[in-house]
Write a structure and sequence with these properties.
alpha+beta, 2 domains, two-stranded parallel ribbon, 4 helices, flat
Length: about 100
Amino acid sequence: MGLMNEYIQRGLSSNDLEKELLLLIARYNKLRGTYLFVYSAAISKQIPAASLNMDDYYIMFDLLNSIKGRKLDFYIETPGGSGEAAEEIVRFVHKK
């Protein structure tokens, strides 16, 4: 049984799930000595504008531009999208 199913069975609200995610990210950062950046979009539902595009690049740029002098771990999960946006994100993250 997966972790998400465990959380669902516990009846956690979306706010509780967000708090749990932030707690897990903080623990991860402490253990690895890094800054974990998680960016995800709806995978199982076809939501307009959920796929990766250049707006996502600008959002990530703004959020990550202030991270200096720390190792960066980057996790992204989207239902696909613009190859150009993905390439720009990869270039930017590699520079960080």
